[in-house]
Amino acid sequence: MKKTSLPVLMVLALAVAAGSTFTQATGNAGGLSCAPEPDRESCTVIMVGKNASVDGSVISTHTCDCGVCDWTWRYVPPADHEPGAMRRIYWVNQFTTTPPSQGLKWDRAPENFSGLEIPEVPHTYGYLLGAFGYMNDNQVAIGESTIGCRDRMENPTPMAKFDITQLTLLAMERSRTAREAVKVMGELAEKHGYGNTDSGEMLAVSDPNEIWIFEIMPVGPLWTPQSGKPGAVWCAQRVPDDHVSVCPNESRIGEIDLEDKDHFMASPNAVSYAVDNKWYDPQSGRPFNWKRAYSPNEVSAASTQGSRVRMWRFFDLVAPSKKFSPDTPNMDFPVTIKPEKKLSVYDVMVMTRDKCEGTPFDPARGLQGGPFANPNFLPYGFEYEGQKYSTSRIIGVNRAEYVTVTQCRGWLPNPIGGIVWLAWGAQDTSCYFPLYQAVNKIPRSFEIGDHWEFNRESARWAFDTVDFHAQVLYSLAIQDVRAAQEKWEKSAVDRTPFVDKNALELYEKDPARAVGYLNDYCLANAEAVINAWWRLGEELLVKYNKLWLYDPATRKRLPLKFPDWYLKELIRYNGLAPEEKK
Q1: Number of compact structural domains in the chain
Q2: What are phi and psi for residue 400, nearest 5 degrees?
Q3: Cα–Cα distance between 473 and 276 in angstroms, integer?
């Protein structure tokens, strides 16, 4: 490998410093997020320990909030490898996509060879792949959220051979447990460097028994393998089995106890790197705090007028009796909490759609939502006469590429126990459908599609079609969408025990038959949901065409009823006068 000279590295370092987005004064953790959006706020992760769930599932989510990223999915099969085989490492930018005419993202990944090859393992596990690896043959599952880091930590140089996408792929290929996945990713990043297009990242790493918060950050643009120092700094904290947690693009790990091997893992420089950079003074008498050292973020829901409301909202939902204040600094919320009621997988799905309804941060309130209470208006705030105004950045944001809810269930064999519930597009207008771990093929419609070219062959466009037609008359159209979700999504959740039972009976006689059964079920159900959403999009177009109400049953057209508050404001603002009485 060709070495990079020190002058080149110094230039790169200066460029990084000049172009950095981290501003401690405003409490913005900075760095790249899941998408190049104005406020750098993307990707929410919810985590549920096995004793905090209704049925004993370990649950995690990933809302891939981007708006411009690649949404395609693949299945990567297991493989056996000859002694001496090598694994090439590629840089895979999580934030970009390519025009369909230039080829699919994962077909083109080998073009971005990092220059590093590592010894292959004898056997790699199969897994489902989207922007990241999501679940492998052992029910090891992952959800991602960008958290940022301090300016000086970023390392976009070619010396950093791993980004977060590639780390998740290696974790999927090589891990039997969540702990193994954490160690695989941590050790590879230490040895070969972490960064490239990524700054600080958080992963929820789970298996049927445990769920871990894994946070990793670069160590600056001057790092080289020859330094003998770790090429990343990382820490992992286990979520207690009866607790839940959230990551809304903010570092969550606080004080750490590296003597407690059951609940903490970390790189050897987890504390020393902060000491060396004067971000922590061991003589201060204060305990070391991971997030305050590497990604401080002094904001609250109230101080940001709701642009950082997700932390407060999650804790308000799972522990309402504690009455957490929106003024509570986000850094002061506990890392985990015991929920006041156990959560089902459907509860978690509903939570991914939460829009702060009934709170002062509800984006549909008043004028912002318009006459038809659309919570998706002004998702990034706005400027007026040189002043900036914030709006609520809610959990159920409307720019998701897709959302995953993973279930790891230890009382069932792996092909039956693992489920990735996938919903394409915006959560509020989409539909979750199950992909059991047994799934070993993906329809072509999952593998294709692009934001800038409509394609009826792409599954994702069915959901975008519904979403588009729901936005104009949201408060009316969302009722039609919810009815479809009840029919296709809730019924699939309720049907899961029946499918499990059938699959288990087959598995005990012939595992291959159980795998075939689950494959057929998942793909047939997914196709039915996709077709249903194409029909729903067409029905919404007809029903609300030209801002009237068309009733196909009666073949009548009715005018829209606008709310009184809107009509009153219209009269005032436009200076309208009532008609003269005749």
Answers
A1: 2
A2: -70, 140
A3: 56
